[in-house]
Structures are given as structure tokens and as C-alpha cells.
Amino acid sequence: MMKKTRAAITAVGGWLPDTVLSNADLEKMVDTTSEWIESRTGIKERRILKGEQKGTSEIGVHAIKSILDKKGIDPLEIDLVIVATVTPDYVFPSTSNIICDKVGMKNAWGFDLSAACSGFLFALSTGTQFIESGKYKKVIVVGADKMSSIINYQDRATCIIFGDGGGAVLLEPTEEEVGVMDFLLHTDGSGQQYLHMAAGGSVNPASHATVDANQHYAYQEGQAVFKHAVVNMAEVSAKIMQKNNLTADDVAYLLPHQANKRICDATANRMGIGPEKMLMNIERYGNTTAGTIPLLMHDYEKLLKKGDNIILSAFGGGFTWGSVYLKWAYDTK
After folding, report:
1. What class is the 6-176 domain?
2. Is the dihedral of CA 132, 135, 139, 141 positive or negative?
3. Domain ranges across the chain
4. Is residue 257 annotated as a catalytic residue, yes or no?
5. Contact between residue 59 and residue 166 where contact means Cβ atoms under 8 Å apart
6. Peptide bond into 319 cis (omega under 30)
């Protein structure tokens, strides 16, 4: 019997800008307190990408270069680059194109994928198919966002939550029982009203009126989004466990999208796992949208052991949500 080819994550890279925006800094900008932000979200500080002409590609380039250096891989060996982001450098060309050019991945093609905070899971699942089909040997999946480019720092509903940063993973084929084992992904476009950016697309192109009305910033109705996120992120994570006959004891770690500590806690509770199995870094980086899960992998890489059952889970604007079940494919040296 032929063994199934699976897509294994064989390396991770992450990158964050140097500038720190703390809760104390935000106290000076909007009517809020550090204590309020931390108790509601779990966030203490976030990173901001400063500098002329620096977009999301900056984050992706650094994350990918660290992977290529670590693995000793020539950029010309990369087949495909998928970039999950809602803050592309430009409407077009794609941020993937720009990253490929900057890194010298001249043999790769690529595209951007937009699924907000679930973007990395959607992109990882997409990249997995290209490996499983036998078509490609080296696929890079990036999750990165420069959220500061679409955040209104007078709007306390959003400015306290988001930060800039992201990461990347290398996918390679394996016949071992490791890698991406399963995924469940969902969308519900009726959630648009609660979390969106009103202008800048083809429905409502940029104009003096849209700029004056502050419509080029992320808009969020926190309570509605929170309610949907708690239910859907928790349910899809429990469902992927049931589908793959996993008990709470079988799961080594949950890597949840870092939107809000309370949403992550609810997901862990629904899965029946204790807080020691839930990996978090929200206090340092806030919500980096498509960047949170690869940044978790990067931060906790040394903790992850070959064969560990890991559940990834996310919920994002649109609405989008999903879960990926993977078996970790290597021990960090």
C-alpha cells in the first residue's frame, strides 16, 4: 500500500518590529486605563512597524530569511509562497510577489489570501494541498499584518487590541505520520456588519468623503464579535478533536489565535484542556491578525516535540473561523 504524502511544517520563523506601544502609551492617546485593557483582553503591549515605505512585506521577508538561513535553503528552491494578510503592501501587485522579489525566490509563484484573523489557517490548509498533490516540495506560508496601517488611534474599541508582526512556516512532503492531519474551515459573510473596513475596495473607493469619514480604518462592534468568536472558535476546536478521536489527554497544546485571552480560555475549556496546554503571547504582541499563530509557533518552538498533537484555532472578521490538527514534525535542536 502506498503511503500518504503529508505536508509537514519543517521550520518556523517569526519577526516583530522594534517599536513598543504599551498600555501606558495608549492611556495618553485615548480614554482608557492600562488595568482596563489588561483585564478585558490580556494585552500589556504591542509592536508597531515604523519607517517610510515599510509594509507587511517587511515582516514576511524577515520571517522567511530566518527560515532559509536556519535550514540552509537556497531561495531558488522555493516553489510557492502564500501570504495571509488583510494589510497588503498594495491593492496590487500581491505582497507575495513583492516578498518573492525581495528574497530572491525567483522560481516561486505566489498569491495573497484574505481571511482576516483566520488567514494563516486558510493559507496553511491551502499550502498543504499543493504538497499533498505531489506538485511541490517546498511551500512557504506567511501570516503577517501591519495593523497599525488601518487602525484609528482615536478609536479605543480597536486601537488597544491590534499590533504589527507575523511569521512564516516551511511546508515539505513527508510519508511519516506527522504534519497537517486535518482541517475544518468556515465562513459566514453575514458577519461583515460587525467587523470590516468600509472604504478602499471597489464598492466604496477612496475619495475625499471616505477619508473625511474615517472609513479607511478597521471597524469593530466588540460585543457582537466576542459572542460569535467564543462560540465558533470553541466549537470548531472541539469538533476537530471529535472527528479525529482525540481526547483532551491526547492534545499536547492548543495554539489559539491571540485576539483576546477570554476567547482563548473559552476554547480551552470547551476542549477540556487545562491552561498549561494553551500557549499565549498576547500580553506582549496584542492581536497581529494573520500573524498570531505563526508567532506562537516561533516563540514556543523549543517546547514542541516531534509527534505532539497540536490544535490550531482562529476566528476572524468576515466572519471566518477554523481549526487545524497537526502532528509536530521535528524536535528543535
Report:
1. alpha beta
2. negative
3. 6-176, 181-281+292-327
4. yes
5. yes
6. yes
* Number of neighbouring beta carbons within 10 Å of residue 283: 15
d(CA 271, CA 273): 6
Active site residue 287: yes
Q: Which amino acid is at 305?
A: K
- Catalogue the long-range contacts made by 49-53 (C-beta closer than 8 Å, 24 or more residues apart): 49/17, 49/19, 49/146, 49/148, 49/164, 50/17, 50/19
Could you confirm whether 117 is annotated as catalytic? yes
Output the pLDDT for position 1: 73
- Single pTM value for the model: 0.98
Low pLDDT (below 70) residues in the chain: none
Give me the pLDDT at residue 103, please: 98
Query: Residue 295: its pLDDT value, please?
Result: 98
Homologous superfamily of the 181-281+292-327 domain (CATH): Thiolase/Chalcone synthase (3.40.47.10)
The type of residue at 16 is L
* DSSP state for residue 287 in the 8-state scheme: B
Distance CA 264, CA 287 (A): 12
- Residue 333 has a pLDDT of 79
Domains 6-176 and 181-281+292-327 share a fold: yes
User: How many residues can be counted in the chain?
Assistant: 333
| Active-site residue identified among 62, 97, 159, 257 | 257
Q: Prior bond to 130 cis, omega within 30?
A: no
Determine which one of 264, 287, 298, 309 is catalytic. Answer: 287
> 117, 264, 281, 298: which one is catalytic?
117
Phi and psi at 200, nearest 5°, equal 105, -15
Cα end-to-end span (Å), the chain: 33
pLDDT of residue 131: 98
